[in-house]
# Entry
Amino acid sequence: MATASRVEVGSTLTGRVSQVDVVEGAQVKSGAVLVRLKSDELQAALAQSRASESQAAARLAGLRSTGRNAVQASVMQAESVLVAAQAELRRTLDLVAQGFVSESRLDEARRGVAVAQAQREAALAQRAAVDDSGTDVVQAQAQLDLAIAARKAAEARLGEAVITAPADAHVLSRLVEPGQIVQPGRALLVLALAGPLQLVAQVDERYLGQLQPGQEASVLADAYPSQRFKARVLSIAPLVDAQRGAIEVKFLVPQPVPAFLREDMTLSVEVETARRERALVLPADALRRDASSDNSVWLVHDGRVQARPVRVGLRTLESVEILEGLSEGELVLVGAATPVPGRRVRADTRAPARGVVNKGTQDSAGAAMTHAMGR
# Structure
Protein backbone atom coordinates (compact mmCIF):
# COMPACT_ATOMS: atom_id res chain seq x y z
CA MET A 1 0.00 0.00 0.00
CA ALA A 2 1.25 3.53 -0.73
CA THR A 3 0.03 7.10 -1.13
CA ALA A 4 -0.23 8.55 -4.61
CA SER A 5 2.93 10.60 -4.01
CA ARG A 6 5.90 9.73 -1.83
CA VAL A 7 8.95 12.03 -1.76
CA GLU A 8 12.40 12.02 -0.26
CA VAL A 9 13.35 15.40 1.19
CA GLY A 10 17.01 16.40 1.09
CA SER A 11 19.33 19.39 1.23
CA THR A 12 20.75 21.35 -1.70
CA LEU A 13 23.68 22.45 0.50
CA THR A 14 26.53 20.74 2.27
CA GLY A 15 26.33 21.57 5.95
CA ARG A 16 25.85 20.46 9.53
CA VAL A 17 22.36 19.79 10.88
CA SER A 18 21.51 22.04 13.80
CA GLN A 19 17.91 20.98 14.40
CA VAL A 20 15.33 18.40 13.26
CA ASP A 21 11.82 19.61 14.02
CA VAL A 22 9.74 16.51 13.21
CA VAL A 23 9.49 12.88 14.27
CA GLU A 24 8.35 9.80 12.40
CA GLY A 25 4.58 9.60 12.15
CA ALA A 26 4.06 13.37 12.43
CA GLN A 27 1.56 15.18 10.23
CA VAL A 28 3.05 18.37 8.76
CA LYS A 29 1.55 21.28 6.85
CA SER A 30 2.93 22.75 3.66
CA GLY A 31 5.83 25.09 4.48
CA ALA A 32 6.41 23.66 7.96
CA VAL A 33 10.08 23.61 9.01
CA LEU A 34 11.51 20.10 8.94
CA VAL A 35 15.29 20.49 9.27
CA ARG A 36 17.62 23.43 9.97
CA LEU A 37 21.29 23.61 8.98
CA LYS A 38 23.94 25.79 10.64
CA SER A 39 23.98 29.09 8.74
CA ASP A 40 26.69 31.35 10.27
CA GLU A 41 28.75 31.51 7.08
CA LEU A 42 25.68 32.01 4.94
CA GLN A 43 24.52 34.91 7.12
CA ALA A 44 27.98 36.52 6.87
CA ALA A 45 27.92 36.15 3.08
CA LEU A 46 24.50 37.78 2.97
CA ALA A 47 25.69 40.72 5.09
CA GLN A 48 28.67 41.22 2.78
CA SER A 49 26.49 41.17 -0.34
CA ARG A 50 24.11 43.69 1.19
CA ALA A 51 27.01 46.04 1.93
CA SER A 52 28.25 45.76 -1.67
CA GLU A 53 24.76 46.53 -2.91
CA SER A 54 24.52 49.62 -0.71
CA GLN A 55 27.91 50.83 -1.95
CA ALA A 56 26.95 50.39 -5.60
CA ALA A 57 23.61 52.11 -5.07
CA ALA A 58 25.31 55.08 -3.37
CA ARG A 59 27.78 55.48 -6.25
CA LEU A 60 24.99 55.45 -8.83
CA ALA A 61 22.93 57.93 -6.82
CA GLY A 62 25.98 60.19 -6.50
CA LEU A 63 26.54 60.19 -10.25
CA ARG A 64 22.90 61.09 -10.85
CA SER A 65 22.80 63.96 -8.34
CA THR A 66 25.94 65.73 -7.06
CA GLY A 67 28.07 64.29 -9.84
CA ARG A 68 25.87 65.82 -12.51
CA ASN A 69 25.84 69.21 -10.75
CA ALA A 70 29.65 69.23 -10.54
CA VAL A 71 30.01 68.27 -14.19
CA GLN A 72 27.52 70.93 -15.26
CA ALA A 73 29.51 73.53 -13.33
CA SER A 74 32.68 72.39 -15.11
CA VAL A 75 30.94 72.81 -18.49
CA MET A 76 29.81 76.31 -17.64
CA GLN A 77 33.29 77.26 -16.45
CA ALA A 78 34.90 75.86 -19.60
CA GLU A 79 32.48 77.77 -21.79
CA SER A 80 33.25 81.01 -19.90
CA VAL A 81 36.99 80.46 -20.37
CA LEU A 82 36.43 79.85 -24.08
CA VAL A 83 34.40 83.03 -24.48
CA ALA A 84 37.13 85.03 -22.74
CA ALA A 85 39.85 83.41 -24.89
CA GLN A 86 37.94 84.20 -28.06
CA ALA A 87 37.49 87.83 -27.00
CA GLU A 88 41.22 88.09 -26.24
CA LEU A 89 41.98 86.70 -29.71
CA ARG A 90 39.83 89.35 -31.39
CA ARG A 91 41.53 92.20 -29.47
CA THR A 92 44.92 90.79 -30.31
CA LEU A 93 44.05 90.70 -34.02
CA ASP A 94 43.06 94.36 -33.90
CA LEU A 95 46.28 95.33 -32.13
CA VAL A 96 48.38 93.38 -34.60
CA ALA A 97 46.59 95.08 -37.48
CA GLN A 98 47.41 98.46 -35.93
CA GLY A 99 50.99 97.43 -35.33
CA PHE A 100 50.87 97.69 -31.57
CA VAL A 101 51.77 94.01 -30.80
CA SER A 102 53.87 91.39 -32.48
CA GLU A 103 52.83 88.21 -34.24
CA SER A 104 54.03 86.17 -31.29
CA ARG A 105 51.33 87.72 -29.14
CA LEU A 106 48.75 86.63 -31.73
CA ASP A 107 50.03 83.05 -31.64
CA GLU A 108 49.68 83.01 -27.85
CA ALA A 109 46.08 84.21 -28.09
CA ARG A 110 45.27 81.53 -30.63
CA ARG A 111 46.76 78.84 -28.35
CA GLY A 112 44.59 80.13 -25.50
CA VAL A 113 41.46 79.67 -27.61
CA ALA A 114 42.50 76.14 -28.60
CA VAL A 115 43.13 75.18 -24.97
CA ALA A 116 39.77 76.63 -23.89
CA GLN A 117 37.99 74.70 -26.65
CA ALA A 118 39.68 71.46 -25.57
CA GLN A 119 38.63 72.03 -21.95
CA ARG A 120 35.07 72.67 -23.04
CA GLU A 121 34.99 69.44 -25.09
CA ALA A 122 36.30 67.47 -22.12
CA ALA A 123 33.63 68.96 -19.83
CA LEU A 124 30.88 68.14 -22.35
CA ALA A 125 32.16 64.54 -22.63
CA GLN A 126 32.14 64.20 -18.86
CA ARG A 127 28.56 65.54 -18.75
CA ALA A 128 27.53 62.98 -21.38
CA ALA A 129 29.11 60.22 -19.30
CA VAL A 130 26.89 60.97 -16.31
CA ASP A 131 23.68 61.08 -18.34
CA ASP A 132 21.33 58.09 -17.93
CA SER A 133 22.75 56.58 -21.12
CA GLY A 134 26.31 57.66 -20.36
CA THR A 135 29.16 55.22 -19.80
CA ASP A 136 29.73 56.09 -16.13
CA VAL A 137 26.07 55.70 -15.24
CA VAL A 138 25.70 52.51 -17.29
CA GLN A 139 28.76 51.02 -15.59
CA ALA A 140 27.53 52.05 -12.16
CA GLN A 141 24.08 50.57 -12.92
CA ALA A 142 25.71 47.30 -14.02
CA GLN A 143 27.69 47.13 -10.78
CA LEU A 144 24.50 47.72 -8.82
CA ASP A 145 22.70 44.95 -10.76
CA LEU A 146 25.54 42.56 -10.00
CA ALA A 147 25.40 43.47 -6.32
CA ILE A 148 21.61 42.91 -6.25
CA ALA A 149 22.00 39.51 -7.92
CA ALA A 150 24.71 38.52 -5.43
CA ARG A 151 22.47 39.57 -2.54
CA LYS A 152 19.53 37.55 -3.88
CA ALA A 153 21.76 34.52 -4.35
CA ALA A 154 23.01 34.85 -0.78
CA GLU A 155 19.43 35.13 0.49
CA ALA A 156 18.44 32.04 -1.50
CA ARG A 157 21.34 30.01 -0.10
CA LEU A 158 20.47 31.12 3.41
CA GLY A 159 16.86 30.08 2.78
CA GLU A 160 18.05 26.65 1.64
CA ALA A 161 19.52 26.11 5.09
CA VAL A 162 15.92 25.76 6.31
CA ILE A 163 14.25 22.70 4.77
CA THR A 164 10.45 22.86 4.70
CA ALA A 165 7.62 20.52 3.75
CA PRO A 166 6.67 20.81 0.06
CA ALA A 167 3.01 20.07 0.84
CA ASP A 168 0.77 18.68 3.55
CA ALA A 169 2.32 15.33 4.35
CA HIS A 170 2.90 12.47 6.74
CA VAL A 171 6.47 11.78 7.93
CA LEU A 172 7.34 8.17 7.14
CA SER A 173 11.07 8.09 7.94
CA ARG A 174 13.54 10.36 9.76
CA LEU A 175 17.02 9.63 8.43
CA VAL A 176 19.06 12.45 10.01
CA GLU A 177 19.91 13.74 13.49
CA PRO A 178 21.41 17.03 14.78
CA GLY A 179 25.16 17.25 14.31
CA GLN A 180 25.32 15.16 11.15
CA ILE A 181 27.00 16.49 8.03
CA VAL A 182 24.64 16.32 5.05
CA GLN A 183 25.30 16.64 1.35
CA PRO A 184 23.12 17.30 -1.69
CA GLY A 185 21.38 14.19 -2.96
CA ARG A 186 21.09 12.48 0.41
CA ALA A 187 17.58 11.81 1.71
CA LEU A 188 16.94 13.31 5.14
CA LEU A 189 13.23 12.54 5.48
CA VAL A 190 10.69 10.45 3.59
CA LEU A 191 7.24 12.01 3.29
CA ALA A 192 3.92 10.69 2.09
CA LEU A 193 2.14 13.65 0.55
CA ALA A 194 -1.48 14.12 1.50
CA GLY A 195 -3.81 12.58 -1.04
CA PRO A 196 -5.88 9.52 -1.79
CA LEU A 197 -4.46 6.19 -0.68
CA GLN A 198 -3.56 3.69 -3.36
CA LEU A 199 -2.92 -0.01 -3.28
CA VAL A 200 -0.21 -1.26 -5.63
CA ALA A 201 -0.27 -4.88 -6.75
CA GLN A 202 1.87 -6.92 -9.14
CA VAL A 203 -0.60 -9.06 -11.10
CA ASP A 204 0.31 -11.99 -13.32
CA GLU A 205 0.09 -10.84 -16.94
CA ARG A 206 -2.21 -13.79 -17.72
CA TYR A 207 -5.03 -11.87 -16.02
CA LEU A 208 -4.46 -8.64 -17.97
CA GLY A 209 -7.34 -9.27 -20.35
CA GLN A 210 -9.78 -9.56 -17.45
CA LEU A 211 -8.84 -6.31 -15.69
CA GLN A 212 -10.09 -2.82 -16.43
CA PRO A 213 -10.28 0.48 -14.50
CA GLY A 214 -13.33 0.92 -12.32
CA GLN A 215 -13.71 -2.71 -11.25
CA GLU A 216 -14.55 -3.29 -7.61
CA ALA A 217 -12.09 -5.13 -5.38
CA SER A 218 -12.21 -6.68 -1.92
CA VAL A 219 -9.13 -6.07 0.24
CA LEU A 220 -7.93 -7.87 3.34
CA ALA A 221 -4.92 -6.97 5.50
CA ASP A 222 -2.93 -9.92 6.78
CA ALA A 223 -2.67 -8.22 10.18
CA TYR A 224 -6.45 -7.59 10.39
CA PRO A 225 -8.11 -10.63 8.78
CA SER A 226 -11.58 -9.76 10.06
CA GLN A 227 -11.68 -6.20 8.68
CA ARG A 228 -12.23 -6.55 4.94
CA PHE A 229 -12.77 -3.32 2.97
CA LYS A 230 -13.52 -2.23 -0.59
CA ALA A 231 -11.28 -0.69 -3.26
CA ARG A 232 -11.51 0.07 -6.96
CA VAL A 233 -9.14 -0.52 -9.89
CA LEU A 234 -7.62 2.89 -10.63
CA SER A 235 -5.08 2.23 -13.36
CA ILE A 236 -3.18 -0.52 -15.14
CA ALA A 237 0.46 0.06 -16.06
CA PRO A 238 1.19 0.24 -19.82
CA LEU A 239 4.32 -1.92 -19.47
CA VAL A 240 4.77 -5.50 -18.33
CA ASP A 241 7.69 -6.46 -16.08
CA ALA A 242 9.40 -8.95 -18.39
CA GLN A 243 11.46 -10.55 -15.63
CA ARG A 244 8.51 -11.32 -13.39
CA GLY A 245 5.82 -11.62 -16.05
CA ALA A 246 3.67 -9.23 -14.03
CA ILE A 247 1.94 -5.92 -14.53
CA GLU A 248 1.42 -3.19 -11.94
CA VAL A 249 -2.18 -2.44 -11.03
CA LYS A 250 -3.19 0.43 -8.75
CA PHE A 251 -6.33 0.42 -6.62
CA LEU A 252 -8.03 3.46 -5.10
CA VAL A 253 -9.24 3.20 -1.51
CA PRO A 254 -12.47 5.17 -1.08
CA GLN A 255 -13.20 7.33 1.95
CA PRO A 256 -13.29 6.78 4.83
CA VAL A 257 -9.94 5.02 4.81
CA PRO A 258 -9.59 2.24 7.43
CA ALA A 259 -7.60 3.59 10.36
CA PHE A 260 -5.34 0.55 10.58
CA LEU A 261 -3.81 1.00 7.11
CA ARG A 262 -0.08 1.74 7.05
CA GLU A 263 2.40 2.51 4.31
CA ASP A 264 3.89 -0.63 2.72
CA MET A 265 1.43 -2.91 4.53
CA THR A 266 0.90 -6.34 2.95
CA LEU A 267 -2.63 -6.77 1.64
CA SER A 268 -4.56 -9.39 -0.27
CA VAL A 269 -6.75 -8.07 -3.09
CA GLU A 270 -9.54 -9.92 -4.85
CA VAL A 271 -11.08 -8.43 -8.00
CA GLU A 272 -14.34 -9.70 -9.44
CA THR A 273 -13.68 -9.30 -13.16
CA ALA A 274 -16.83 -11.08 -14.33
CA ARG A 275 -19.60 -13.37 -13.12
CA ARG A 276 -20.95 -16.61 -14.66
CA GLU A 277 -24.21 -18.31 -13.75
CA ARG A 278 -22.72 -21.57 -14.99
CA ALA A 279 -19.19 -22.43 -16.18
CA LEU A 280 -17.00 -25.42 -16.97
CA VAL A 281 -14.07 -25.21 -14.53
CA LEU A 282 -10.70 -26.95 -14.10
CA PRO A 283 -7.86 -26.48 -11.60
CA ALA A 284 -5.34 -24.00 -12.99
CA ASP A 285 -2.50 -26.55 -12.91
CA ALA A 286 -4.42 -28.79 -15.34
CA LEU A 287 -3.51 -26.43 -18.21
CA ARG A 288 -0.45 -27.26 -20.29
CA ARG A 289 1.43 -25.60 -23.13
CA ASP A 290 2.70 -27.52 -26.14
CA ALA A 291 3.85 -26.83 -29.69
CA SER A 292 0.35 -27.01 -31.13
CA SER A 293 -1.54 -24.87 -28.65
CA ASP A 294 -0.94 -22.23 -25.99
CA ASN A 295 -3.49 -23.94 -23.76
CA SER A 296 -4.20 -27.64 -23.76
CA VAL A 297 -5.11 -30.39 -21.30
CA TRP A 298 -4.17 -34.06 -21.02
CA LEU A 299 -7.26 -36.17 -20.54
CA VAL A 300 -8.22 -39.86 -20.49
CA HIS A 301 -9.96 -40.93 -23.67
CA ASP A 302 -10.60 -44.59 -24.58
CA GLY A 303 -8.07 -45.74 -21.99
CA ARG A 304 -5.21 -43.59 -23.25
CA VAL A 305 -3.79 -40.17 -22.40
CA GLN A 306 -4.73 -37.62 -25.04
CA ALA A 307 -3.62 -33.97 -25.47
CA ARG A 308 -6.46 -31.69 -26.43
CA PRO A 309 -6.33 -27.91 -27.10
CA VAL A 310 -8.84 -25.80 -25.17
CA ARG A 311 -9.98 -22.23 -25.17
CA VAL A 312 -9.96 -20.64 -21.74
CA GLY A 313 -12.00 -17.79 -20.29
CA LEU A 314 -11.88 -16.36 -16.79
CA ARG A 315 -8.99 -17.26 -14.50
CA THR A 316 -8.36 -17.25 -10.78
CA LEU A 317 -5.26 -18.34 -8.91
CA GLU A 318 -6.74 -21.81 -8.43
CA SER A 319 -9.17 -22.32 -11.29
CA VAL A 320 -9.68 -21.61 -14.98
CA GLU A 321 -12.84 -21.48 -17.07
CA ILE A 322 -12.93 -23.73 -20.15
CA LEU A 323 -14.93 -22.24 -23.01
CA GLU A 324 -14.20 -24.83 -25.72
CA GLY A 325 -12.46 -28.20 -25.99
CA LEU A 326 -13.94 -30.12 -23.03
CA SER A 327 -17.27 -31.47 -21.91
CA GLU A 328 -18.55 -31.79 -18.39
CA GLY A 329 -17.52 -35.06 -16.74
CA GLU A 330 -14.41 -35.80 -18.82
CA LEU A 331 -11.34 -36.90 -16.84
CA VAL A 332 -8.33 -34.54 -16.99
CA LEU A 333 -4.83 -35.25 -15.65
CA VAL A 334 -3.44 -32.73 -13.16
CA GLY A 335 0.16 -32.01 -12.18
CA ALA A 336 3.57 -32.70 -13.68
CA ALA A 337 3.98 -36.36 -12.64
CA THR A 338 1.49 -37.73 -15.16
CA PRO A 339 1.84 -40.11 -18.11
CA VAL A 340 2.49 -38.51 -21.47
CA PRO A 341 -0.03 -38.53 -24.32
CA GLY A 342 -0.38 -41.95 -25.95
CA ARG A 343 0.20 -43.94 -22.76
CA ARG A 344 -2.47 -46.37 -21.70
CA VAL A 345 -4.14 -45.65 -18.31
CA ARG A 346 -6.99 -46.97 -16.25
CA ALA A 347 -9.02 -44.60 -14.03
CA ASP A 348 -10.02 -45.65 -10.54
CA THR A 349 -13.04 -43.49 -9.71
CA ARG A 350 -13.67 -45.31 -6.40
CA ALA A 351 -10.84 -43.49 -4.60
CA PRO A 352 -11.86 -40.43 -2.55
CA ALA A 353 -11.01 -37.07 -4.14
CA ARG A 354 -9.92 -33.68 -2.84
CA GLY A 355 -12.58 -31.34 -4.17
CA VAL A 356 -13.12 -32.65 -7.69
CA VAL A 357 -9.84 -34.61 -7.94
CA ASN A 358 -10.06 -38.43 -8.21
CA LYS A 359 -7.23 -40.96 -8.11
CA GLY A 360 -6.41 -42.94 -11.24
CA THR A 361 -3.97 -45.68 -12.25
CA GLN A 362 -1.77 -46.31 -15.29
CA ASP A 363 0.33 -49.19 -16.43
CA SER A 364 3.40 -48.03 -14.53
CA ALA A 365 2.46 -45.40 -11.97
CA GLY A 366 -0.44 -43.52 -10.36
CA ALA A 367 -1.80 -40.27 -11.92
CA ALA A 368 -3.91 -37.52 -10.36
CA MET A 369 -7.10 -36.85 -12.29
CA THR A 370 -9.98 -34.44 -12.07
CA HIS A 371 -13.41 -34.24 -13.58
CA ALA A 372 -14.21 -31.28 -15.81
CA MET A 373 -16.98 -29.90 -13.65
CA GLY A 374 -19.77 -27.47 -14.40
CA ARG A 375 -20.49 -24.78 -11.85
Observations:
- Helices lie at 40-64, 66-98, 103-129, 135-159.
- Residues 183 and 243 are 35 Å apart (CA to CA).
- The chain is about 30% helix and 35% strand.
- The first strand starts at residue 2 and ends at 3.
